[in-house]
Design goal:
The protein starts with a strand and ends in a 6-residue tail after the last helix. It is α+β, with helices and mostly antiparallel strands and 75 residues long. A 4-stranded antiparallel sheet has the order 1-4-2-3, with no helix packed on it. It is 31% helix and 25% strand. The chain is globular, with a radius of gyration of 11 Å. It has 3 helices and 4 strands.
Length: 75
């Protein structure tokens, strides 16, 4: 499992973030406080508090390709 925080502070960032995640077959969760949603769900992400960074969890032992592509979103 790989975990790090991401900052999704604009609508465009959320759409680009989800588009990036959907290119990969990894299971991805996004958490804000006690709420957990599928990282590939635009509606799920918009239901979270995006004023603060959210925690991204990639359910894989190694996902260097995805992590590199998500670098612009890291908080």
């Amino acid at each position: 499992m790989i975990k790090f925080d991401v900052k999704l502070d604009t609508i465009d960032k959320v759409y680009a973030f989800v588009a990036t995640l959907t290119k990969y077959e990894y299971e991805v969760d996004v958490a804000s406080g006690r709420y957990l949603v599928n990282g590939k769900s635009i509606m799920g992400i918009f239901s979270l508090d995006l004023l603060s960074p959210v925690e991204l969890t990639i359910h894989a032992d190694k996902a260097d390709d995805l992590v590199a592509e998500l670098a612009p979103y890291m908080a």
